[in-house]
Specification:
CATH topology: Umud Fragment, subunit A
CATH architecture: Ribbon
Oligomer: single chain
Largest sheet: 8 strands, antiparallel
Mean pLDDT: 89
CATH superfamily: Umud Fragment, subunit A
Amino acid sequence: MEPEQPVESARPGIIRTFVNIVVMVAFIFGLSWLLRVYVFQAFEIPSASMETTIMTGDMVFAEKMSYYFREPAPGDIVTFEDPEIPGRILIKRCIAAGGSVVDINDADGLVYVDGVPLDEPYTNGKPSYTLPGGVTFPYTVPEDSIWVMGDNRTNSQDSRYFGAIPCDSVTGHGMVVYWPLDSIRLLE
Protein backbone atom coordinates (compact mmCIF):
# COMPACT_ATOMS: atom_id res chain seq x y z
CA MET A 1 0.00 0.00 0.00
CA GLU A 2 1.32 3.38 -0.96
CA PRO A 3 1.63 6.14 1.62
CA GLU A 4 -1.04 8.77 1.40
CA GLN A 5 0.05 11.86 -0.49
CA PRO A 6 -0.81 15.21 1.06
CA VAL A 7 -3.40 17.11 -0.89
CA GLU A 8 -2.14 20.59 -1.83
CA SER A 9 -4.62 23.36 -1.53
CA ALA A 10 -4.88 25.71 -4.49
CA ARG A 11 -6.25 28.45 -2.26
CA PRO A 12 -2.94 29.81 -0.81
CA GLY A 13 -1.50 30.12 -4.34
CA ILE A 14 -4.47 32.14 -5.57
CA ILE A 15 -4.41 34.42 -2.53
CA ARG A 16 -0.65 34.96 -2.85
CA THR A 17 -1.04 35.80 -6.57
CA PHE A 18 -3.87 38.23 -5.80
CA VAL A 19 -1.82 39.96 -3.05
CA ASN A 20 1.19 40.21 -5.40
CA ILE A 21 -0.96 41.83 -8.08
CA VAL A 22 -2.42 44.34 -5.60
CA VAL A 23 1.07 45.20 -4.28
CA MET A 24 2.41 45.64 -7.85
CA VAL A 25 -0.51 47.90 -8.86
CA ALA A 26 -0.08 50.00 -5.68
CA PHE A 27 3.66 50.29 -6.39
CA ILE A 28 3.04 51.44 -9.98
CA PHE A 29 0.46 54.04 -8.89
CA GLY A 30 2.73 55.26 -6.09
CA LEU A 31 5.70 55.58 -8.43
CA SER A 32 3.56 57.41 -11.01
CA TRP A 33 2.36 59.82 -8.35
CA LEU A 34 5.92 60.48 -7.10
CA LEU A 35 7.17 61.13 -10.65
CA ARG A 36 4.28 63.50 -11.41
CA VAL A 37 4.61 65.45 -8.16
CA TYR A 38 8.41 65.72 -8.00
CA VAL A 39 9.93 65.03 -11.44
CA PHE A 40 7.72 65.93 -14.43
CA GLN A 41 4.16 66.66 -15.46
CA ALA A 42 2.30 66.66 -18.75
CA PHE A 43 0.10 69.57 -19.84
CA GLU A 44 -2.24 70.19 -22.75
CA ILE A 45 -2.04 73.78 -23.96
CA PRO A 46 -5.55 75.30 -24.03
CA SER A 47 -4.83 78.76 -25.46
CA ALA A 48 -2.83 80.66 -28.06
CA SER A 49 -0.81 82.76 -25.59
CA MET A 50 2.50 81.00 -26.40
CA GLU A 51 2.05 80.62 -30.17
CA THR A 52 4.04 79.90 -32.30
CA THR A 53 6.47 78.44 -29.76
CA ILE A 54 3.70 76.21 -28.35
CA MET A 55 0.50 75.79 -30.33
CA THR A 56 -3.04 75.38 -28.97
CA GLY A 57 -3.62 71.66 -28.35
CA ASP A 58 0.08 70.76 -28.05
CA MET A 59 1.03 68.40 -25.23
CA VAL A 60 4.05 69.56 -23.22
CA PHE A 61 6.24 67.93 -20.57
CA ALA A 62 7.49 70.22 -17.81
CA GLU A 63 10.30 68.96 -15.59
CA LYS A 64 10.39 69.99 -11.94
CA MET A 65 13.88 69.02 -10.78
CA SER A 66 15.93 72.01 -11.99
CA TYR A 67 13.99 74.54 -9.89
CA TYR A 68 14.82 72.63 -6.72
CA PHE A 69 18.40 73.83 -7.27
CA ARG A 70 18.02 77.23 -8.96
CA GLU A 71 15.51 80.00 -9.59
CA PRO A 72 13.87 80.43 -13.02
CA ALA A 73 16.01 82.52 -15.36
CA PRO A 74 15.02 84.94 -18.14
CA GLY A 75 14.28 82.94 -21.28
CA ASP A 76 12.98 79.85 -19.43
CA ILE A 77 9.50 78.65 -20.30
CA VAL A 78 7.84 78.06 -16.93
CA THR A 79 4.63 76.56 -15.62
CA PHE A 80 3.15 78.27 -12.57
CA GLU A 81 0.04 78.57 -10.47
CA ASP A 82 -2.40 81.12 -11.85
CA PRO A 83 -2.38 84.08 -9.42
CA GLU A 84 -6.11 84.61 -10.01
CA ILE A 85 -7.62 81.11 -10.32
CA PRO A 86 -6.44 78.63 -7.66
CA GLY A 87 -5.55 75.20 -9.00
CA ARG A 88 -5.06 76.38 -12.58
CA ILE A 89 -1.58 76.10 -14.12
CA LEU A 90 -0.34 78.57 -16.76
CA ILE A 91 2.69 78.43 -19.05
CA LYS A 92 4.65 81.55 -20.07
CA ARG A 93 8.21 82.71 -20.69
CA CYS A 94 10.27 84.24 -17.87
CA ILE A 95 11.33 87.71 -19.04
CA ALA A 96 12.94 89.18 -15.93
CA ALA A 97 14.00 88.13 -12.42
CA GLY A 98 13.70 89.83 -9.03
CA GLY A 99 15.26 93.29 -8.83
CA SER A 100 14.97 93.97 -12.57
CA VAL A 101 13.01 96.93 -13.91
CA VAL A 102 10.62 96.10 -16.74
CA ASP A 103 9.27 98.77 -19.05
CA ILE A 104 7.11 98.56 -22.16
CA ASN A 105 7.16 101.29 -24.76
CA ASP A 106 3.81 101.31 -26.56
CA ALA A 107 5.30 103.54 -29.28
CA ASP A 108 7.85 100.96 -30.46
CA GLY A 109 6.20 97.80 -29.01
CA LEU A 110 9.41 96.70 -27.27
CA VAL A 111 10.02 95.30 -23.80
CA TYR A 112 12.91 96.86 -21.89
CA VAL A 113 14.62 95.20 -18.93
CA ASP A 114 16.90 97.50 -16.94
CA GLY A 115 16.76 100.01 -19.81
CA VAL A 116 17.88 97.56 -22.51
CA PRO A 117 15.43 96.48 -25.26
CA LEU A 118 15.03 92.70 -25.42
CA ASP A 119 15.82 90.75 -28.57
CA GLU A 120 12.80 88.42 -28.70
CA PRO A 121 12.75 86.32 -31.90
CA TYR A 122 10.13 84.00 -30.33
CA THR A 123 7.48 86.75 -30.61
CA ASN A 124 7.71 86.63 -34.42
CA GLY A 125 7.82 90.41 -34.54
CA LYS A 126 4.53 90.93 -32.68
CA PRO A 127 4.63 94.10 -30.59
CA SER A 128 4.29 94.17 -26.81
CA TYR A 129 1.83 96.69 -25.44
CA THR A 130 0.65 97.58 -21.97
CA LEU A 131 -2.74 96.14 -20.99
CA PRO A 132 -5.68 98.33 -19.91
CA GLY A 133 -6.27 97.82 -16.20
CA GLY A 134 -2.87 96.18 -15.82
CA VAL A 135 0.26 97.22 -13.95
CA THR A 136 1.93 100.59 -14.43
CA PHE A 137 5.39 100.93 -15.94
CA PRO A 138 8.24 101.02 -15.26
CA TYR A 139 7.72 98.04 -12.94
CA THR A 140 10.35 96.75 -10.51
CA VAL A 141 10.13 92.97 -10.12
CA PRO A 142 10.12 92.11 -6.40
CA GLU A 143 12.88 89.85 -5.05
CA ASP A 144 12.01 86.13 -5.17
CA SER A 145 9.64 86.84 -8.08
CA ILE A 146 9.74 86.69 -11.87
CA TRP A 147 8.08 88.62 -14.71
CA VAL A 148 6.38 86.31 -17.23
CA MET A 149 4.89 86.99 -20.66
CA GLY A 150 3.35 84.87 -23.39
CA ASP A 151 5.24 84.72 -26.69
CA ASN A 152 2.04 85.71 -28.51
CA ARG A 153 2.07 89.22 -27.06
CA THR A 154 -1.16 90.32 -28.73
CA ASN A 155 -3.08 87.40 -27.16
CA SER A 156 -1.66 86.80 -23.68
CA GLN A 157 -2.86 87.74 -20.24
CA ASP A 158 0.41 87.74 -18.30
CA SER A 159 2.50 89.83 -15.89
CA ARG A 160 1.40 92.95 -17.76
CA TYR A 161 -2.00 92.22 -16.22
CA PHE A 162 -1.35 90.44 -12.89
CA GLY A 163 2.20 91.60 -12.11
CA ALA A 164 5.20 89.50 -11.18
CA ILE A 165 4.68 86.02 -9.80
CA PRO A 166 6.47 84.58 -6.75
CA CYS A 167 9.15 82.02 -7.57
CA ASP A 168 7.53 79.58 -5.16
CA SER A 169 4.44 79.47 -7.42
CA VAL A 170 6.55 78.08 -10.30
CA THR A 171 5.72 74.39 -10.78
CA GLY A 172 8.00 73.38 -13.65
CA HIS A 173 10.28 74.16 -16.58
CA GLY A 174 8.65 73.56 -19.98
CA MET A 175 11.02 71.23 -21.83
CA VAL A 176 9.47 69.40 -24.77
CA VAL A 177 6.38 69.27 -26.96
CA TYR A 178 5.60 65.55 -27.27
CA TRP A 179 2.27 65.63 -29.10
CA PRO A 180 1.26 65.78 -31.91
CA LEU A 181 3.96 63.48 -33.22
CA ASP A 182 4.81 65.71 -36.18
CA SER A 183 5.51 68.59 -33.76
CA ILE A 184 7.89 66.87 -31.29
CA ARG A 185 10.60 69.35 -30.32
CA LEU A 186 12.57 70.79 -27.44
CA LEU A 187 11.34 74.13 -26.16
CA GLU A 188 13.67 77.12 -26.28
